[in-house]
Structure formats: C-alpha cells, structure tokens
Design a protein that fits this description.
Largest sheet: 10 strands, antiparallel
Number of strands: 35
Number of helices: 9
Number of domains: 4
Shape: elongated
Length: about 600
C-alpha cells in the first residue's frame, strides 16, 4: 500500500471516529481557503477604490474595521490552523508547510494586536508650554451630557462615513432621558463669527458696524458692548483701534499735521532706485513704476501707496494733471522723457522713441504719525437710538458726529467709511459657528448641525458645533451639552519641546531640515530622556533596544511646522505593539517557503544510496 493510500485511510478512520476531526478537516479544506482568499482579494481591491474615491475613514469603517472583515480574517486563521492540523502526525517534508502556515497566523495575530492596541496620531508642541501627555487621533467622537444626571458619555461618531443631511438625519438617544439628539448637517469647513444678540439679562448697550476701506470690497464687521472687559475694544491691525466708552474723551491729536513736498524721477529701467527729494527729509512712502504690458503698448504709470494699495493709469491720461488721491496727497506727473539722456548736466530726451523712458512726479501731502495709531471712539448718543463718535487719524482733522443705525459716516481716516448696522439697548456678543462657503484646498475644521427633540415632537433651537468645541442644546424641558471632536489618547509619559530649528538651503528660503530637541519624562520611573528629531531620523521612547524590538516603544517623527511661529512643531506618533509578531510571522513565512521549494528540491536531487 502506498503512502498516500495509507494516509487517506487514516484520515477516513479518524473522521469516522471523531466529529472534532470532521470539523477540523472541513475548516482546513482547500476549497474554503480558496473562497476566503478570493473574497479577501476582491474586498481589498474594492476598499482601495473606496479609499481613493472617498476617504480612509470610509474604507476603514465599511471594510477594514467592519465586523464581517474581522470574521473573515478569523476564518482564514482557523483555516490555516486546521489545514496544518490535518497533516498530523507531521513528517519531515511537512516542515516548510507548517512553518509557512505558522508565519501567516502569527502575522495576522500581529496585525490584530496592532490594530486593537496600537495607534497613529499627532501631537502639537510649543516651546515654553506645559509638557504634552495626550495624542490626537483621527477618530471623531461625540460626547453628550445626560440631562438627568449630568454624567458625560462618549461614543464614536464619524460623519464622513454616513454623512447626516436634512433629509437623512442621524438620531442618538440621550442617556437617562427620552430626548433625542438629532444631527441633520455636516460641513467639511467651518468659520467662527461674532454676532451681536439681544440679551434681556444684560444692562449694557452694544452695536455692530462695518468698515470699508482701501484693502478691498469685502467689509470688516465688528461688534462692541459697553462695559465689557473683552468686547468693548477691538483692533484693526496695529495702526487702528475702535472703542466703546461711556463718554467721549477729548481729542489729543493736533488739528493740523506737518506737510511735505516731494519729487521723484522714476526710471522705467530701474524703478526701485528713483531720484527722490523730500522737503521733510522723510520719504512719503509712495512708489511709482513706469512701463508697458507688451512691447508697443502705451506706457502706463502704477502708483503704489504706503499701505500697499494702488492703481494703474495710462501715462497720457495723467501727464500734466494733478491727481487728488484719497490718502490726501496731490500727485502731479510734471515731465516725461521718452529717451532720457543728460545734456550739460540736465535731463533731456534724445528722440521720441521710448527707449529709456522716465517721468518726474511731484507730490504734496501730510506726513503720517507712525508712532500713534488711528482711533475711533464711540459713546451713547444724546438721544435713544443714537451713538456719538470721535475719529482721530495719524494726519488730518478729528471727525465727530452723531450716527443712527443704517447710516454711513467717515471716521476721519483717509479712504475709510463706517456703517452702523445695528444698535441694541441690552446686548451681548456671541461667537457662532457657521459652515464656510468658500472652497479651499487646505483642510479646515469640520462642524455638525444638531438640535434636541422631545418625545412630543417639539424641537429646540439648532446650532453648528465645530470640531474641538461643545455647545449647550436645549429643548422644552431638557438641556444637554454636546461636544464634537477627535479622540485623545493618553500617554504613559510626557513630552516637552525644548527648541525647534529650520535650517535653509543656501541662498533660498526653502527648508533644508527640521530639527527639534525634546525631552521625555516618566514620573513613575523618575526618568527624563532628551532626544533629537530630524527629517528621516525619528526619536523613540522608552530608550533601549528591547522596547524597539518588542514594539512597546513610541516613535515620534517630524510631521508639520508653522512658518510664522518657529516655537511650534507637530510630531507624528506611532505605537504598534504588534510589530514583533508581524516581523516574526514574515520571517517564518520566508523560512517556510524557502524550505518547501529549495531545501526540498536539493533533497530530491540527491541520489539514493
């Protein structure tokens, strides 16, 4: 009897005697293995398209993190275990087969451990700030407060997986209550705006206004409330402020400002180096550029003001004309030389072809007071429903008057106008979240639109809740604080930023490297470990070879930085306790395949004695 026939008889007898062996052979069959592998291959391919078409969260929720996918992987592990068990008792030629199957099982176990116990997140560090002890994970969560007990409950809630809409809202019951939380909107980007609202509990008046100036057509909206430490004053950059006081102060600005006269000879070939003379000894800050858009086009003169705004005129339209600029300056293009040359030390032209054009510009105006910012002060008016104002600028006469809602006035700042939008007798300023209507390529702060619904069907006011914030929602007879944000993973140690440096490539502003000096601290072990991070050179904690080999360490890599603030940096944090199992399983798979296909071939090729 051959070896295969005797083995078949042994398997048949074993299955006839024991139902357990029948189950083992059924789970370890080749047909089941092919079904599982083909299904997993198709599902992973579909998940790849799902991730590229939607997001990694959607693919993780519907495929990689779904219960049925985990069940499929468990069935695959059982198939591998039972397939190896069906070869029992193992013989020498089964060695490679068993090692390969053991490697796959260990690899899958490592993946399961890494997914359940590991994480990947980020941490923002600032120099001088308290050490960080939490990592921000890309796992949205919803935190709700029980209306009955005030206890907080947290649950995973990813709006990208099943986006709530007005026609398809998502309902969540509030613990200890019959009230439901209804989420009927989601925005990828949100903005925060301050709004003036009526508040009967407040005794202070407030108003909203809009500033229009030379910066662009979009007005700047501000709201102020009287006697409010945080909301009675606002700054419009470093050069202007707005304040709401009980009474108007006396003007401290001079009624007249020092004047200047300036001449500039502007060369088309070298506009950055004009020949300038100012009677005050201080340049006005105006810049002029002479040129044409295309060869053969008429010459144009660009006027650039000190604040960065400007206009472009055709040279023929402004030559020998005085321009009354809104800044208060008078601009006269007095002379034009098509081809500037010097004759007897005086500027002249050699022909009418614009080969070396130049102009002489003459200016008159007032010198700005760069040390004192402009100021606009409001106070309650002499009659109800009015406001008194005092506008003071760096140059010019102070502006005073009385304004009513809906009226527009000049604050005395050149080129600016102010509109009083609304005026409330009892007011407060509230910061509200709204969806952003401007599409941008950069990721923004998402937000949910939610409200509470009572059992009788009545609903409370709805509002937007931005990620990382919370809001109190109310309904008839109930109130609950709702929070929306990303999950925070605590660390068993703390991390502190000591310094951050961004070296540049020679002669450019392009970053050549990112260097961060950090300190890990473990208070339980009374341990502090300094570390250095660079591009492609991460830092790990705890130190030592054993934590890195076992996968119990935490790896920190440079992930982001703020060009405007070099005292901040963002690090990526990776913790994978299944690392050792994954590598061990991979090495066992390689060893098993090598022994099956190479060592076996060498054994078979040897002649038998």
């Amino acid at each position: 009897m051959s070896l295969d026939e005797s083995r078949k008889q042994m398997v048949s007898a074993r299955c006839a005697r024991s139902p357990i062996w029948r189950i083992v052979h059924a789970l370890g069959s080749l047909d089941l293995a092919m079904l599982l592998l083909i299904t997993l291959t198709g599902v992973c391919a579909a998940a790849t398209f799902l991730e590229s078409g939607f997001s990694a969260r959607v693919a993780r929720a519907y495929v990689y993190g779904s219960p049925w996918f985990n069940l499929w992987l468990i069935l695959l592990c059982l198939n591998l275990i039972c397939s190896a068990a069906t070869r029992w008792p193992w013989q020498r030629h089964h060695t490679g087969f068993v090692i390969t199957h053991a490697g796959i099982i260990i690899l899958l176990a490592g993946a399961l451990v890494g997914r359940s116990r590991g994480f990947e997140g980020s941490v923002d560090l600032s120099r001088g700030a308290p050490p960080a002890q939490e990592v921000l994970l890309d796992r949205p969560r919803l935190t709700v407060e029980s209306p009955a007990t005030g206890q907080l409950f947290s649950t995973p809630f990813d709006p990208e997986v099943r986006t709530p809409r007005p026609d398809r809202p998502r309902f969540l019951p509030l613990p200890g209550s019959d009230v439901q939380l209804v989420i009927d909107g989601y925005a990828n980007r949100s903005i925060e705006k301050t709004e003036l609202t009526h508040d009967s509990a407040s005794t202070n008046p407030g108003f909203a206004m809009e500033f229009t100036g030379p910066f662009g057509p979009e007005p700047i909206r501000l709201s102020l409330v009287l006697n409010s430490a945080a909301d009675s004053r606002a700054d419009l950059g470093p050069q202007a402020s707005v304040e709401f006081l009980p009474t108007l102060p006396k003007s401290t600005r001079p009624s007249t400002a020092p004047t200047f006269r300036e001449t500039q000879m502007v060369l088309a070939r070298d506009p950055a180096q004009p020949i300038l003379h100012n009677t005050s000894g201080q340049p006005s800050g105006f810049h002029f550029f002479l040129g044409s858009r295309k060869s053969g086009d008429p010459l144009e003169l660009e006027i650039l003001r000190p604040d960065g705004s400007g206009e472009i005129y055709r040279l023929n339209d402004v030559l020998n004309r005085t321009l009354e600029d809104f800044s208060g300056a008078k601009i006269l293009v007095a002379r034009y030389w098509p081809n500037l040359v010097l004759k007897d030390g005086q500027p002249s032209t050699d022909g009418d072809r614009p080969e070396n054009p130049a102009v002489l510009v003459m200016l008159e105006g007032t010198l700005p007071d760069t040390t004192t910012p402009s100021r606009l002060t409001f106070a309650p008016g002499p009659t109800p429903g009015t406001l008194s104002f005092l506008g003071e600028s760096a140059s010019g006469t102070p502006a005073t008057g009385i304004v009513r809602p809906g009226e527009t006035f000049s604050p005395g700042w050149k080129g600016w106008s102010v509109k009083l939008v609304s005026l409330e007798k009892n007011a407060r300023i509230e910061t509200v979240t709204l969806p952003s209507e401007k599409p941008e390529s950069r990721p923004g702060r998402p937000a949910l639109h939610a409200f509470l619904r009572s059992p009788d069907g009545s609903s409370g006011p709805a509002r937007w809740i931005a990620s990382g914030t919370s809001a109190v929602l109310t309904s008839p007879g109930a109130a609950s604080r709702i929070g929306f944000g990303l999950e925070l993973q605590p660390l068993p140690f703390s991390i502190r930023l000591d310094s951050f440096d961004v070296p540049r490539d020679p002669g450019t502003d392009e970053p050549a490297n990112f260097r961060a000096s950090i300190t890990f601290a473990d208070p339980k072990k009374n341990l502090e470990v300094p570390a250095q991070l660079e591009m492609n050179h991460p830092a790990t904690f705890p130190p030592g070879l054993l934590p890195q080999i076992t996968g119990l360490s935490y790896k920190f890599s440079q992930a982001g930085w703020d060009p405007q603030d070099l005292n901040r940096t963002t690090l990526q944090v990776l913790h994978d306790p299944g690392w050792l199992l994954k590598w061990s399983g991979s090495l066992l798979m390689v060893a098993g395949i090598f022994s099956m296909f190479y060592l076996r071939r060498e054994t078979q090729s040897q002649p038998t004695p």
